[in-house]
Design goal:
single chain; 198 residues; alpha+beta; GTP Cyclohydrolase I, Chain A, domain 1; GTP Cyclohydrolase I, domain 2; 2 domains; 5-stranded mixed sheet; two-stranded antiparallel ribbon; 39% helix; elongated; binds guanosine-5'-triphosphate; binds zinc ion; EC 3.5.4.16; GTP cyclohydrolase 1; zinc ion binding; GTP-CH-I_C/QueF; one-carbon metabolism
Length: 198
């Protein structure tokens, strides 16, 4: 994913968020005039816009841009797609890997578009369950495949850095549509994403 360029940041949003960050940093007991923090409110305002840029992007359009007619009707899997998102309860990161499979029904999609839509839906304030279903439903509705499956494994900083402080806990969510409701197809997918070979 290309780095969001300076000119793509909304000037008014950057300015408003910058001023609010300045207040927040001061409320937390810091001195925004010390050298290391002088540009921090602006940097943080830009970082937050970068991390929530998914609101401005249309995942269905991304998929539609690279759909090709093809008579392939076996499973296609893209696994270990790394993602970074923000938990909507604490605005702290949760991140991990997404695994996506689909069985085409006349159309395949450009492989890179699957990680791209993971980015679109993860760069928002999210919960892992909704992220899983948004990716699943977008592929199902746009590509209309025989079936689609999404598994997400993630570490939540709100459970590791604070709160319950469980540093090794990993949350797994999954969703299955169409042919993946079938236990054999689902098992084949789950075996393939846990295999070290592919
Ligand atoms: N289901 C779900 N819960 C999440 C996700 N990210 C964070 N949470 C949880 O959201 C909940 C918010 O609970 P609250 O009791 O309102 O917040 P809290 O007092 O900060 O809770 P603790 O984290 O237990 O200290 C917590 O249990 C978090 O673990 C997510 O992606 N999915
Ligand atoms: Zn949280």
């Amino acid at each position: 994913m290309p780095y969001k360029k300076f000119e793509e940041y909304n000037v008014k949003v950057t300015d408003d968020v910058k001023n609010r960050y300045k207040n927040i940093i001061e409320d937390l007991g810091e001195d925004t005039q010390r050298e290391g923090l002088l540009k921090t409110p602006e940097r943080a305002a830009k970082a937050m816009q970068y991390l929530t840029q998914g609101y401005d992007q249309d995942a269905a359009e991304i998929l539609k841009g690279a759909m090709f007619k093809e008579d392939y009707n076996d499973m296609v899997i893209v696994k270990d797609i790394e993602f970074y998102s923000l938990c909507e309860h604490h605005i702290l990161p949760f991140f991990g890997k997404a695994h996506i499979a689909y069985i085409p029904n006349g159309h395949i999609v450009g492989l890179s578009k699957l990680p791209r839509i993971v980015d679109v839906f993860s760069r928002r304030l999210q919960v892992q369950e909704r992220l899983t279903h948004q990716i699943l439903d977008c592929i199902n509705d746009t590509l209309q495949p025989e079936g689609v499956a999404v598994v997400i494994e993630a570490s939540h900083m709100c459970m590791q850095m604070r709160g319950v402080q469980k540093q090794n806990s990993v949350t797994t969510t999954s969703g299955f549509r169409g042919a993946f409701q079938n236990i054999e197809t689902r098992t084949e997918f789950l075996n393939l994403i846990s295999s070290k070979l592919s």
